[in-house]
Amino acid sequence: MQIAKSWRRQPSNLRLEGTRCTGCGQLEFPTVIRCAQCGEIEFETYQFAGKGKVIVASTVYEATRDFGEHVPYCAAIIELEEGIHLATMITDVDPADVTVGMEVEMVTRRIAAQGDNGPILYAYKFAPQLQIL
Ligand SMILES: [Zn+2]
């Protein structure tokens, strides 16, 4: 992903900020410009809690240049507590240990960099939720 494009997406990339439709209440992530449920074009900002569970996961051994530094990594679809599904990378755990149903939470991590001296892009990934005993 280009750095300039990611800069525009900072609220969603760093804070998991989406939208709630003012017409029907539908939540969306990432943001949309027209509600798929009712056609409304007015939205309010919605802050997702950043917790969810893995619904499908796969280990990636070969990736595009942008993600090559992360291999092998776990690519997953998760379901947020609010019901939204999103694609993400699971971090802070061996990819082989990621299981369907695993409870995860959003963390901010390095995604890519432009060259050795260029800007570094940070964005959300998800990590296993810490269990408080
Ligand atoms: Zn709507």
Key features of this structure:
133 residues; mainly beta; OB fold (Dihydrolipoamide Acetyltransferase, E2P); 5-stranded antiparallel sheet; 8 strands; globular; binds zinc ion
Explain this structure:
With 133 residues, the protein is mainly β. The chain has a single domain (3-128), classed as OB fold (Dihydrolipoamide Acetyltransferase, E2P) (Beta Barrel). 9% of the residues lie in helices and 42% in strands. It has two helices and eight strands. The chain has helices spanning 3-8, 10-15, and strands spanning 17-21, 27-28, 43-47, 51-60, 73-80, 85-90, 103-113, 120-128. The strands form two sheets. A five-stranded antiparallel sheet has the order 6-5-4-7-8. A three-stranded antiparallel sheet has the order 2-1-3. A hairpin with a 6-residue loop joins β7 (103-113) and β8. The protein is globular, with a radius of gyration of 16 Å. The N and C termini lie far apart (39 Å). The structure holds zinc ion. The site of zinc ion has 8 residues, from loops.
Kindly summarize this structure in a few lines.
The protein is mainly β and 133 residues long. It contains two helices and eight strands; from the N terminus they run H-H-E-E-E-E-E-E-E-E.
For the residues shown, what is the average pLDDT?
89
Proportion of residues in extended strands: 35-45%
Spans of 5+ residues with little confidence (pLDDT < 50)?
none
The class by helix and strand makeup works out as mainly beta
Helix count, DSSP H or I runs of 4 or more residues: 2
Order of helices and strands: HHEEEEEEEE
Shape annotation? globular
For the sheet with most strands, the description reads: 5 strands, antiparallel
CATH topology: OB fold (Dihydrolipoamide Acetyltransferase, E2P)
Strand elements, count = 8
Number of domains: 1
- CATH architecture term: Beta Barrel
Hetero ligands: zinc ion
Give the proportion of residues in helices. Answer: under 10%
Based on CA atoms alone, the radius of gyration comes out at 16 Å
